[in-house]
C-alpha cells in the first residue's frame, strides 16, 4: 500500500520525519511532517511512532500494527497486535500465536511463537515459555531466532557485558555467559542483575537486600528493603518497612549520599538525580515533588518539579505543573529554549523540540516558533464545526470537551453545548488542593451524516493508590438542526419491544461468537431501556460498562447489530432515523 504524498518528487523526501496528528471524522489520525511542518505522509493512521535509526516507523491501522519506510510504503503490513522498537536489528512482534522476532525486512526469524520475548542485548534476547508440565521457564535466543540457550531457568535477566544472572532453582542463582555456561554460582534466594560489578542479593527468603560482587563476596551487608543496580557509582535503595517509601542513594561502600528520607529517586545521567519528597506525607502514592541533585549529595533546586527527565545534550525537561521547560545541569532554566504553559515533557528531536503538554503534541523550532500542533477546530461541513475546549482547574483534572458552532438555532446550540460540557464532566473542581483521584477526559467525532452528529466522550478516573482506575464513555447523538439529543428508544417503533429483540440478538452472539467467550457465565440478563449505544450509517452498536458482563480487561463489551437485521422494528418515519437517512 502506498500512501505517499508530497509537494515534489520522491527524492525530495527529508530524512527527518515527525509523527503528527489531527482530529478528523472519524477520530484522531496520524501521519508525518518534515522539519518545516509540511506533510510528507498522509494523516491516515490510527497511531504513528517516531522513525527509528533503520528508517522504519511503527504505525497502527484498524487495530493492527505494521512498519513503513520514509516513502510511506508498508515494509511490514499491519497484521500484528504490537511491534517493539528495533534493537540490534531485531524487533519483537505480537500476534494471535504470541511473540516472534522479525528483521528489518519484516521476515519472521523465529521458528515458533513464544509467550514472551525481550529486546536484544549483546546478541541475545530473553524468552519465556510454558513446557509440557506447565512449568514456565526462560531461555535465550540469538539474532537468527535460534534457541542458543534453552528454556531452563526459573528467572532470568537481560545480558550486560556478555553476562546475565539467571535462577536455576530455589536458592541457586548463577552468572552465565552467552552460551549459558555458569561462570559463578550464588546460593541465595534472590540475586539481581549485575550493575557495575555488584549484584543486589538476599541471604534469606524474608530477609533484606545487600550487595555482593560477581565472585559472590558480600560487599554491603543486607539492610535494605529494596535495592536497585548501581549506575555511575551510585545505587537507589529503600529502608522503609511494609511497602513504604524511604529512598536514599548509596555509594559502593554502602554509605548514604542522600539519606533514606525521600519518596522517590531517579537517575538522570550526567551525575544528576531527581530526588522526590511526597506530595502528601504518609501517602506515597500521590506522587512526588522533585528537586535536581548531584550524585555527590548537593541539592541544586527547590522541590518544585512534578517530573524531571533524563539529561540529553546538556539539558533536561522539567515541569512544575503550570510550566514546562528545559533546565541545565545546574538546575537553571536553559536559555534560548521554549517555556510552555502546562504540564508535560519537552524532548529534543533532531532540529525540532517536541512538546507533549497536557496530552497534546506541539513541535517548536529552535527559536520557539510553532511548527505544528494538533488542530482545535474540526470542520464538519461548510456550515458546522466542532471546537475543542480545554478545562484544567487542577493539576489532576484535565478535560478536553466539544462545543458545536454553526447551528442556526442559537437556543438549541446553547442547550446542546451545555449538555456536552456536562457529559464531558466539566464541573466545579477546587484548584490548589490535592485531589483524591486524577481525571482525564477527551472526545472524538465518531460519525456525521446529514443532520446527525455522533460524538464519543470518554474519560478515565484513577483514585490514587488503587490498582487501576475506571474508564468512562458516552455517546451524544445530536440533531444539528433542532438540537435534539437522541436516546435508544427514539430509533424504534413505540410498540416494537426493541428491548427484547435486541436482547435476544445479543444473547445469540454471546452464545455463538467466540470473540465474546470472556463474558461472565450467567451475567448477561438482557439490555435496559436506556442501554448505552451508538450508531453509524449501517449499524447499531450496543455496549456495556466494564465489569458489567465481563472482566475489566475486556473494556466496554460491544455488540454490532446491522440495521438490515432489525428494519422491521426501526421507526423509519421517526426523527432520529430521518436525521441520517
Automatic annotation (TrEMBL):
Query: From which source organism is this entry?
Result: Schinkia azotoformans LMG 9581
Q: Which Gene3D superfamilies match?
A: Fervidobacterium nodosum Rt17-B1 like, Heat-shock cognate protein, ATPase
- InterPro entries recorded: DUF3298 (IPR021729), PdaC/RsiV-like_sf (IPR037126), WG_beta_rep (IPR032774)
Name of the protein described by the UniProt record: DUF3298 domain-containing protein
Q: Where is the DUF3298 domain?
A: 489-564
